[in-house]
Design a protein that fits this description.
Blueprint lengths: L1 H13 L14 E7 L6 H9 L4 E7 L4 H13 L7 E5 L3 H6 L8 H10 L2 H6 L1 E2 L2 E2 L2 E6 L2 E5 L10 H13 L5 E3 L6 H13 L16 H14 L13 H10 L2 E6 L2 H9 L1 H4 L2 E4 L15 E7 L6 H11 L2 H9 L8 H5 L3 H6 L3 H10 L9 H11 L11 H12 L7
Parallel strand pairs: 1-2, 1-3, 8-9
Antiparallel strand pairs: 3-11, 4-5, 6-11, 7-9, 7-10
Length: about 425
């Protein structure tokens, strides 16, 4: 269908970056979907399968880096560009885009269906001020990955993991704990997860002020203890997700806190290690209190400046249906947001996600990042103040509190 439509849509698509979505001579509307690059082809397949005689969906690839993706969308929406119809928003952007009235809230039967079929954790990423402003499409969360040939039993807590790593180091065995400690979003995610797992939040429920308390002190103490221990990779302060994956595959680490993409990668790149590569829930910060790993992913939003909003919502509902979400999970490596896919998993899904029950538990009980239109500012000050992670301590709470207050007021920061 997409190939047949190409000839009559060429003139419209060539100018997609400059002109609003347009119709062919047959009246078929072209809807522009802006999303991050997907090398698996799953997103392109979803766009093709959801195209109808009334409209086609054109998949426009945003830059690779999340900051550049946001910048491009912000510039176009601030200019009231009607050439943007649908967007796959990073789960940290919803509050900002909704508060600026750049996206249209969901309502009616569509909103009801989204709310009834979506896992609770991912659903919270798409809410702002009690209203559904986007539809969860894909999601993500971290687990603990470890080598069972080095550690027969997964540690339940951070303290136990550090103790296990120290024991392995004394025995001269691979022992590092790989975690995202570079000065970027991954460090903010680590902090948010640790605070939530200790029973706290970074911001108050209204998102108007910091709420750092004893839970934040517990989180900072745990982060600093790990970063200053033999468990820490010497490259911790420069480590991002892929760096952690590569370090684990190199054989220098015993533990890795990371996303599910590492499973297929280990299977392909290091089959010898894959035999003993296994998983467990994110370690507890407080013994006996389940961890609350931070939820990631993408949510579908409709542009306030689109000239085809009714069709946009139809297209979004199709893009996030069970068939497309399963394809994105199995082929594209992004876990689904629909509860039905976990309740009745297909053989293909189970094969790719043998840990799907742990993913489900993490998504049901996980945490979301601070909900505020000024999230970019808040993330910047957190990652700046906690870099390097070895500087983390309970004494940082006061400084973080002050800097987050300034961030919420957009003082002295350029996101």
């Amino acid at each position: 269908m997409a190939r047949r439509a190409w000839g009559m849509l060429t003139g419209c698509l060539i100018g997609a970056a400059l002109f609003p979505a347009c119709s062919s001579s047959s009246g078929r509307v072209s809807l522009q979907l802006y999303d991050s690059p997907d090398p698996s082809g799953a997103t392109a397949q979803a766009a093709a399968k959801c195209s109808t005689p009334a409209y086609s969906i054109t998949y426009d690839k945003l830059p690779n880096a999340a900051d550049s993706q946001r910048q491009q969308l912000v510039r176009r929406l601030a200019a009231h560009d009607s050439g943007v119809d649908l967007m796959a928003l990073d789960v940290t952007w919803e509050a900002e885009f909704a508060e600026a009235k750049w996206i249209v809230p969901w309502s009616g039967a569509d909103a009801q269906q989204v709310e009834q079929t979506t896992l609770n954790g991912p659903l919270q990423t798409a809410m702002w001020n009690g209203q559904l402003v986007a539809a969860p499409w894909t999601t993500n969360t971290e687990l603990l990955w470890y080598r069972s040939d080095l550690v027969p039993k997964a540690p339940a807590t951070w303290d136990q993991m550090i103790a296990d790593a120290v024991g392995l180091a004394k025995a001269g065995k691979p022992h590092y704990v790989e975690e995202q400690g570079a000065q970027y979003e991954g460090l903010t995610v680590w902090f948010n997860t640790m605070v939530a797992s200790a029973g706290g939040t970074v911001l108050n429920p209204q998102g108007t002020a910091p709420a750092l308390d004893g839970a934040a002190r517990t989180a900072l103490t745990a982060m600093g203890d790990m970063a200053r221990s033999p468990a820490a990779d010497p490259s911790l302060s420069n480590t991002e997700e892929n760096d952690a994956r590569l370090a684990m595959e190199s054989g220098s680490a015993a533990f890795e806190v990371n996303y599910p993409f590492v499973w297929a990668s280990m299977q392909k790149d290091k089959p010898a290690f894959y035999k003993s590569f296994t998983w467990a829930p994110f370690p507890q910060v407080v013994a006996g209190k389940p961890a609350k790993p931070t939820i990631g992913g993408l949510d579908l939003a409709v542009s306030a400046y689109s000239k085809h909003k009714d069709l946009d919502f139809q297209a979004a509902m199709c893009l996030r249906d069970a068939a497309n979400q399963e394809r994105l999970a199995v082929t594209g490596g992004l876990p689904p947001t629909l509860r039905s896919l976990y309740a009745n998993p297909s053989p293909a899904f189970v094969q790719e996600y043998p840990f799907y029950k742990d993913i489900l538990n993490a998504l049901d009980s996980g945490s979301v990042r601070p909900k505020t239109p000024a999230y970019q500012n808040v993330s910047i000050v957190i990652s700046h103040e906690l870099s390097p992670p070895s500087s983390a301590s309970s004494q940082k709470v006061g400084t973080l509190d002050s800097q987050i207050k300034d961030a919420l007021a957009s003082k002295g920061l350029v996101p």
